[in-house]
Amino acid sequence: MKTQTCFIDENAIHSTIQSTTNPESSVVDEILAKALELNGIDFHESALLLNVTQNSDLEKIFDTANKIKDEIYGNRLVLFAPLYISNFCSNNCLYCGFRNDNKEIHRRILKIDEIKEETLHILEQGHKRVLLLMGEDHKFNTLDYFIDAIYAIYSVKDSKGSSIRRINVEIAPLSDEEFKVLSEVPIGTYTVFQETYHYETYKKMHPKGKKSDYFWRLYTMDRALSNGMHDVGIGALFGLYDYRYEVLSLIQHSKYLDSVYGIGPHTISIPRVKPAKNAPASYNLQYAVDDLSFKKLVAVLRISVPYTGIILSTREPASLRNELFNLGVSQISAGSKTTVGGYKQAFNGTENTEEIGQFTLNDCRSSGEVIQDIIKMGFVPSFCTACYRVGRVGEDFMDLAKPGLIKLHCHPNGLTTLKEYLVDYADEETRKVGEKLIEIELEKIPNLKVRQKTIQYLQRIEKGERDLYF
Length: 470
Ligand code: SAM
Ligand code: SF4
What we know:
Blueprint: H1 10-19, H2 25-35, H3 43-50, H4 55-73, E1 76-86, H5 112-123, E2 129-134, H6 143-155, E3 166-170, H7 176-182, E4 190-191, H8 199-205, H9 214-218, H10 220-226, E5 232-235, H11 243-261, E6 267-269, H12 291-304, E7 309-312, H13 318-325, E8 331-333, H14 342-348, H15 367-376, E9 380-382, H16 386-389, H17 394-401, H18 406-424, H19 428-442, H20 448-462
Parallel strand pairs: 1-2, 1-8, 1-9, 2-3, 4-5, 5-6, 6-7, 7-8
Helix pairs in contact: 1-11, 2-4, 3-11, 3-12, 4-12, 5-6, 5-14, 11-12, 15-19, 18-19, 18-20
Bound molecules: S-adenosylmethionine and iron/sulfur cluster.
Residues 95-96, 133, 135-136, 170-172, 192-193, 195, 237, 271, 273-274, 276, 279, 282, 315, 358-359 line the site of S-adenosylmethionine (SAM).
């Protein structure tokens, strides 16, 4: 039983879900009209939208989420690649292939040289952003090792002279002291998923190890933001408990961080549980989220916290990912491997399909294929990392994002980084459709000076300069 009081009010969330079932269409219309003012909606209104089941109302929710996404983020999709450096883990999360009780997995921790090799393969796909991950194991996966890995990744240059420009991290919750140390290291966003905000379910899913402490995990972002970290990301693993409860908790968490630290989470991640070998809770899920509900929850998040990025991974299949791009997703992974050393193995053709990753992937297209497909859908694949490098992070980022000004930086930066990709890594077909898209997008830059400068940047990139940004 949960005894400690905290910002997640389980009773209030449950009773809000109960009291908002079957909302009238007219009520849905009113909420959506308010949402279009881009100031978010209140908690009760989010619950009403989550309880919508009628197709006609769902369509209206999707349409509103799409408009909000367009207004704030435009048609950019920021790309990244995950990099797993160790699958040692002392926890026993019942849904995860890396869990300690999984004795069939080949445990591996990459040496610094191997991390550099993985980085090179990621760079050769055109990526500039990496999400760095490892299991929680205090003997092998130390913070010192992790920091060495970060500097090793930044040090690698590929055949085009490019290097990784931003490393986001997703590792187990750190202590105050550890956050102080990490805050001195040049990283972008620090992310931890609560997995489930429902206490009883959390205790069931995390029977062993440090992770079994619900509150240690719940207050991770408080420790991070109190100890020098600027950008944090949160998330829930959908399928462990009622998705409406998890979404409302994510919203409560976001609003709580905003009210206490003056800054909400930079991103929210929305993984759904996928089958993982020897992970009993990854099969026959009592709370499995079907595709339509998943689309609804993404749209409701976009409407409820319009300025927070939403991250979608390759856990989801290509066709569903394509639909979700229109509903509010702003960052996506592509060409991902969740096995340790997986990029090199794929490059050498020595991938062992029996090898256990953290979970199974459903979008197995290469980065190149994903990029070409999203260009053809009219989205701008962006490799931009400018904000973090010029210090537009935390509160500064939100101050810019809120009035929509971020478009003035992000849209042109999306075009210049796409141009780099087209010149350095794209095949002929991608280059053709990409150049056409850039032409169309240039016309959309409202400020003439910014448009002119973007055109100059594009010309300089064509001639060989790199890393030009606003
Ligand atoms: N070990 C750290 C932790 O648990 O916070 C780092 C992140 S872990 C490598 C990445 C995330 O993968 C977990 O937080 C969990 O949400 C997700 N995950 C684990 N098993 C999964 C599964 N079977 N399907 C989908 N996502 C899963
Ligand atoms: Fe370990 Fe993270 Fe997997 Fe849990 S989710 S078993 S902590 S790697």
